Automatic annotation (TrEMBL), chain A:
Major site of localization recorded for this protein: membrane
Source organism, top-level taxon: Bacteria
SUPFAM superfamilies xref list: Transmembrane di-heme cytochromes
The UniProt record lists the keyword Transmembrane: yes
Organism listed in the record: Erythrobacter ramosus
An MF annotation (GO) of this entry: iron ion binding
Domain (Cytochrome b561 bacterial/Ni-hydrogenase): residue spans on this chain: 6-212
Places the protein is found: Cell membrane
InterPro entries recorded: Cyt_b561_bac/Ni-Hgenase, Di-haem_cyt_TM, Hydrogenase_cytochrome, Ni-dep_Hydgase_cyt-B
Protein name: Thiosulfate reductase cytochrome b subunit
Residue segments, region Disordered: 217-244
Bilayer-crossing regions: 12-30, 77-98, 136-160, 180-201
Bias-annotated ranges (Pro residues): 221-234
Family statement: Belongs to the HupC/HyaC/HydC family.
UniProtKB/TrEMBL annotation, chain B:
Record protein name field: DMSO/TMAO reductase YedYZ molybdopterin-dependent catalytic subunit
Superkingdom of the source species: Bacteria
Oxidoreductase molybdopterin-binding domain ranges (all copies): 90-223
Organism listed in the record: Erythrobacter ramosus
TM region(s), chain numbering: none
InterPro entries: OxRdtase_Mopterin-bd_dom (IPR000572), OxRdtase_Mopterin-bd_sf (IPR036374)
């Protein structure tokens, strides 16, 4: 049994690419009007709850201010992001990933569970399924941040509002939706940083997201020992050349 | 077993990473990808909302205290300025192109048509929004009066303002042209349109972004294709900056 099934791996990398494009084009788009408001309308900086910095070229796609191209990339990458989110949710519900790894019990939210999670993460126990902190963090990303990104993005599209006017009401108006879109983007960025740092500590984790890895908690009886390889195919044990 | 998906995945990721490079922005592949995404949004919006699905309308209490003017906020043309000073007595709105009965209406005639009043939100491509009450006849009524010919696929709006040395224009397809909220507004918040908001007449196409809301409209033209107008991309900002023709996202 693989640690990461193919659907998870496929989604992970497609989504990673989509999110990088969405985030960096999003910063370019933010530069067009660097003020955020609550409610339905907002155009006057003096009504803004937040004035955002001008994001530098190295942080944006394209690397200079170009609203048209940034929007082209943004609204294109939105497709694999949105369809992918639907895909991974269906896949997680069907293959049990959600129930097994992302659901929590009240006990997972106690300080003791958090401390033991952090201790466990550095040891081999990390391989034994998700600890409470992982369940909570991944649950927040899948259950809150990614869907919030998608729904706020749809809500600020004037062509989509006719399909779901209730969405704007739920989110508190178009400028509120735009503010939440910005906040959720930085929430995902925060997760991204933690995720990358922890993965870089053990680079095998990154490799496993390509190969699938092997699940450590195989409860099934151990597989029969593989047949011994042909003597000719045996690699030299000590690294010395096998033949002269 | 593992190698094949891994290799194709790596290749896919490498391609997507490279896609961020600016050179690819100009490639035909990128352009057709953007076009497919844009068409996908338009088709999905229309499928979900229906061709006649309405944009939200607001109450007077929900309106913004003022309505921002953006893009062109004045028109240099002396005839325009002279008409503006006198309340546009000789201003004419033409309906032309692929129509059986070309029209030229005075402002009084536009006001005499059946009117629609709507308090709607204006979303600029830059991100800001303003809410105002607009009044004017539905574009559908004018098109019906002029009897649009078969083969007309788009409605083009010709404007009096000049930006960067070019005449402003915009275009929409027949779905938005016949949408109930698509009106030619002469009134904003109960007053004749101010110059910065497009006096004497501007378009309201409520399911698209601000740059589609052509101001200072002189003529409405039914065409089969906009390939030969401007640089052929269907609008001023589409030509000048490469903005998407479907501005519903």
């Amino acid at each position: 049994m693989k640690k990461h099934v193919l659907s998870t791996r496929l989604w992970h990398w497609v989504n990673a690419a989509a999110i990088i494009v969405l985030f960096m084009t999003g910063l370019n788009i933010s530069n067009a009007h660097r003020y955020l408001y609550w409610g339905d309308y907002g155009f006057d900086p003096k009504d803004a709850w937040l004035g955002v910095i001008k994001f530098p070229g190295w942080a944006t796609i394209p690397q200079h201010y170009n609203l048209a191209l940034a929007r082209d990339w943004h609204t294109t990458a939105a497709w694999p992001f949105g369809v992918g989110l639907l895909f991974i949710w269906v896949a997680m519900l069907v293959n049990g990933h959600f129930r097994r790894d992302l659901t929590t019990t009240p006990r997972d939210w106690t300080p003791g569970a958090v401390i033991s999670s952090i201790k466990a993460h550095s040891g081999d126990a990390a391989a034994q399924g998700y600890n409470p902190v992982q369940r909570i963090l991944y649950g927040m990303v899948f259950g809150v941040l990614l869907p919030l990104m998608l729904f706020t993005g749809l809500a600020i599209s004037p062509g989509f509002q006719a399909a779901a006017p209730w969405l704007l009401d739920v989110l508190g108006g178009r400028q509120s939706a735009r503010s939440l879109h910005f906040i959720a983007a930085w929430g995902i960025f925060g997760f991204f940083v933690i995720h990358i740092v922890l993965a870089l500590i053990d680079w095998r984790l990154i490799l496993e997201m390509f190969t699938g890895g092997r699940r450590a908690d195989a409860a099934a009886p151990p597989a029969p020992a593989p047949a011994p390889p042909e003597p000719d195919a045996m690699p030299p044990e000590d690294g010395a050349p096998a033949h002269g | 077993m593992v190698d094949l998906p891994r290799r194709s995945l790596l290749a896919g990721i490498a391609a997507m990473g490279a896609a961020a490079c600016s050179k690819i922005n100009e490639s035909e592949t990128a352009k057709s990808l953007f076009k497919a995404a844009e068409d996908g949004h338009r088709i999905t919006h229309r499928a979900l909302a229906g061709k006649q699905g309405l944009a939200p309308e607001y109450s007077r209490a929900e309106s913004s205290p003022t309505f921002r003017g953006n893009g062109s906020v004045t028109v240099a043309d002396p005839f325009y300025q002279e008409q503006l000073a006198r309340g546009f007595p000789e201003w004419k709105l033409e309906v032309k192109g692929l129509v059986e009965k070309p029209l030229a209406l005075t402002l009084a005639e536009v006001r005499a048509l059946p009117q629609r009043t709507q308090i709607t939100r204006h979303d600029c491509v830059e991100g800001w929004s303003a809410i105002g009450e607009w009044q004017g006849p539905q574009l559908a009524a004018l098109l019906d009066a002029a009897k649009v010919k078969e083969g007309a696929n788009f409605i083009v709006f010709r404007c009096a303002d000049v930006l960067y040395g070019r005449d402003y224009y915009e275009s929409i397809d027949m779905v938005d042209a016949y949408h109930p909220q698509t009106i030619i507004a002469h009134t904003l918040n109960g007053e004749p349109l101010p110059e910065k908001n497009g006096a004497p007449l501007r378009m309201r196409i409520e399911r698209q972004l601000g740059y589609k809301q052509a101001k200072y409209v002189k003529a409405i033209e039914a065409v089969a294709s906009f390939d030969d107008i401007g640089q052929g991309k269907g609008g001023f900002w589409e030509d000048v900056a490469g903005y998407q023709w479907y501005a519903g996202v």
